[in-house]
C-alpha cells in the first residue's frame, strides 16, 4: 500500500477538468448564458491586432455591434432565425438564437477610431491598427 499525501482539492481539480472538457464540446446553448459568447482568435501582426470571431447566422449589419477602446474589444448582438419550425416537428435544436456578447483584452494598445470589420461566411474579422505612440512620459518633480 502506497501512501499519498492528503490533498483536499485533488478531487475538485478532476471535477473542474471534466466540466471544462464537457463545456468545450457544447455549442452555443440557451441553457448556459456563459456559452452565449462567440469563439474568437486574437492575434497581432507588426502593424495591427486582428480578431476573428465565429458568428454564424447574422443577416444584417444591425445584428452585431463592435466597441473598441485602447486595449479592449467588445462584440455583441443577436442571432435570429427567420424560419420557425413548429415544436412537434422539431427533432433536435442545437443552433443558438438570441443575444450574445464577448469582451476580450487586446494584446497591444490600438487606434480604436481606425478599426475596420468585415463579415463573410459566418466569420467576423476586426482589424485594428496598433497605436505605436509611446505611452511613456517623464514626470517632473516639483520641489518646495
From TrEMBL:
Domain (CS) spans: 35-142
InterPro entries (UniProt xref): A-crystallin/Hsp20_dom, CS_dom, HSP20-like_chaperone, Small_HSP
- Write one Pfam family the protein is assigned to: HSP20
Which superkingdom? Answer: Bacteria
Q: Which CDD domains match?
A: ACD_sHsps-like (cd06464)
Extract the SUPFAM superfamilies matched here: HSP20-like chaperones
Where's the SHSP domain? 31-144
Q: Which family does it belong to?
A: Belongs to the small heat shock protein (HSP20) family.
Supply the name of the protein: HSP20 family protein
Which organism is this entry from?
Planifilum fulgidum
